[in-house]
Write a structure and sequence with these properties.
Elements: H1 4-22, E1 30-33, E2 43-52, E3 55-63, E4 77-82, H2 84-90, E5 91-94, H3 105-114, H4 123-136
Antiparallel strand pairs: 1-2, 1-5, 2-3, 3-4
Keywords: Signal
Signal peptide: 1-18
């Protein structure tokens, strides 16, 4: 009989804990994150959150990147689909920045059309990998 209060507490607390867990990241939030060296001012914005068959997908944009000379994109990436694990491994604190971010709509649409995947590694590693691919010319471009 003395276990009844504990059981009641677990039933009540479980949905609250799950809700808090889900709501940590939300569309519109701007975060500071663990960046590559020299990009400490770069910011990440969660543009959209959606439920997909493989789990929650966070569509993010980045600004303040340093691509180097001759590289495209003007220091920003408009769309990257990432996992909760990516955000957990990358973000450091919420920012109150009102900076402008690129519109991710075309990237999200292309991702859906391609039935694309989701990054599960830290953001800084994603950026490094993307830039490495661009630098080697391994990405086909539409003319």
């Amino acid at each position: 009989m003395r276990w009844l209060p504990l059981a009641v507490w677990l039933i009540i607390a479980a949905p609250v804990a799950a809700e808090d867990d889900v709501s940590r990241y939300a569309a519109g939030q701007v975060w500071e994150y663990r960046t590559r060296a020299g990009e400490e001012g770069s910011l990440l914005k969660i543009q959209q959150v959606e439920q997909a068959p493989r789990g929650t997908v966070y569509h993010i944009s980045l600004i303040g990147l340093s691509f180097g000379r001759g590289m495209p994109h003007g220091g920003e990436l408009g769309h990257m689909p990432v996992s909760r694990e990516t955000l957990d491994a990358s973000v450091t604190r919420l920012s109150d920045s009102k900076a402008e971010f690129p519109d991710p709509a075309s990237g999200i649409a292309a991702w859906r059309e391609a039935e694309g995947g989701v990054f599960t590694i830290p953001v800084a590693e994603i950026v490094e990998n993307i830039l490495s691919i661009i630098a080697t010319g391994a990405v086909a471009t539409k003319e």
